[in-house]
Every structure is written in structure tokens, then in C-alpha cells.
Amino acid sequence: MKEGNWMLSLGLFLLRLALLILVVVGIFKVGEYAYTYCYSVVSDTAAEEEPGRDVSVSVTSDMSAGKVAKLLERKGLVKSVDVFKIQMKVTGYEDKIQPGKYVLNTSMRPREMLKILAGEETEEDEE
After folding, report:
1. To which H or E segment does residue 115 belong?
2. CA nearest 78: which of 24, 87, 16?
3. Which run of H or E residues covers position 58?
């Protein structure tokens, strides 16, 4: 009888230990994902290294900020729609995007593209 209790206690201990390890690893993975996601929002990094490639983009007056972000991702100008939408909101450019035809480069940082799309800076001003 004592040996059965000892085996049951050992089994329960190992089960609790395994659950604890899973919880700790899960918390670590969630923290790692959150850090990476937040870093990508504030890092303002380009989609490609210089010199990149020029891409023509047409923004219409009926396009929302989300549609603009999807267009830029589809054209290879930004890495993530979600990250770019957050960058637009945080920097205050979400409602400043102007309709028009633009030539953007894949080596531009998101903030540079937002300034151009908002009409604050032209492509020639950068050079």
C-alpha cells in the first residue's frame, strides 16, 4: 500500500512539474512575441535594404487607412499591414493620407512614406 501511495505522489509531482514548465514556457513565448511585435512598431525599418526598388502607388479618395496599408504591403513597401496601421495611428498620419499617384521605394522607412502620402514631403525633397 505504501509503495502505491509513493508512486501516486511521484506521478502527481511530475504532472505538476510538467504543467509548471508548460506555463513558464508559454509565458516566455507570449512575452517574446509581444516584444517582437512592439519592436517592429517602433523600429521604423524599411522593407528592403538600399537601394531598393521604385514602386508606383495610386491612392484614391475612398481608400481607408487600412486599404492603403494593404496596398503598400501587396506592393512590397511594408512588411505587415497590422504593424503599419498601428504606425499610422501612433504617428498621427491615419487621417492625413492624400489621394494621388506616388512613387515610393522599398528602402524607405514607413515614416518617410507616411510623410509623402500625407503631402508633407515630396519624393524630390528626400534627395
Report:
1. helix 110-117
2. 87
3. strand 54-59
Residue identified by cell 512588411 is 79
Segment 33-70, tens digit of pLDDT: 999 888 888 888 888 888 989 999 999 999 999 999 99
Based on DSSP, count helices (H) and strands (E) in the chain, helices before strands.
5, 2
Q: What is the dihedral of CA 67, 72, 76, 77, to 10 degrees?
A: -150
- Where do runs of H (alpha helix) occur along 44-122? 65-74, 81-91, 110-117
Can you give the residue ranges of every domain in the chain? 1-43, 54-126
Pairwise CA distance, residues 98 & 115, whole Å = 10
CB atoms within 10 A of CB 20: 10
- The pTM of this model reads 0.72
CATH class of 54-126: alpha beta
Report whether 57 contacts 71 (CB < 8 A): yes
Cα(50)–Cα(68) distance, integer angstroms: 23
In angstroms, the first-to-last Cα distance of the chain is: 84
Q: Do residues 40 and 79 touch, judged by C-beta distance below 8 A?
A: yes
